[in-house]
Amino acid sequence: MEKISAEGDKLASISKLSKSQRTLYFSIGSTLVFFLYTILFLNPVSSCFRLEDSSNSLGLTFSYTSEMVQNFFELRSQDQLHCYSQFLQIWDVIFAVIYTLMYCFWILYFLDNRRIFLIVPLLAMIADWSENYAELLMINSHLNSNLISETLVSVGSGINSFKWILLTLTYLIILIGIMITLKSVITKPKQFHE
User: Rounded to an integer, what distance in angstroms lies between the CA atom of residue 1 and that of residue 188?
Assistant: First the structure.
């Protein structure tokens, strides 16, 4: 009976190991996809609205004001704003999915038994999409009337700040996971096979 129990424990251990390895492979794979997507798609597609001496995306700042938004739009032609609009609707949405998957896989790998932390990068993705929508409304308002609602700018900026807070929290969660994993590896008693 003890032999059967030992075999069961051994199989459970092998199953857990392979699950951990699969999660690591997904983590590494999603990180590779993240870098390839950024280099091969995101950077080339965003070239149509980038300027050398200007912020190239409102979403990359922690927050923004009406003056910053107005300046961002006025520095660009209508074609550049249409390109930026497409970027927000397609390419940046896909990017949010990719980075969210990458962060989730790393959290699963480092903090397997604490899946509740997955909510943080998922909320960051939703905040990113919401901020993109607010930016699209601002672009349309600017193109139609050259005016942008203060309220809309405040909402977009608030959502953007919330996104960056969630992403910072995501990085902290992953960092804590790395530290916990390193600590368990360092303090794990060495097993000698005889």
Answer: 29
Name residue 94's amino acid.
Answer: I
- pTM value is 0.84
N-term to C-term CA, the chain: 25
pLDDT tens by residue, 47-57: 999 998 777 88
Check: CB of residue 62 under 8 Å from CB of residue 30. Answer: no
Alpha helices in the chain (DSSP H): 2-37, 43-46, 66-74, 78-86, 92-110, 119-145, 150-187
Interacting residues of 12 by C-beta distance below 8 A, sequence separation 6+:
none
Vertex 82, ends 77 and 87: CA angle to 5°?
A: 120
What does the buried/exposed string (b/e) look like for 34-71 if buried means 16 or more CB atoms within 10 Å of the residue's CB? beebeeeebeebbeebeeeeeeeebbeeeebebeebbe
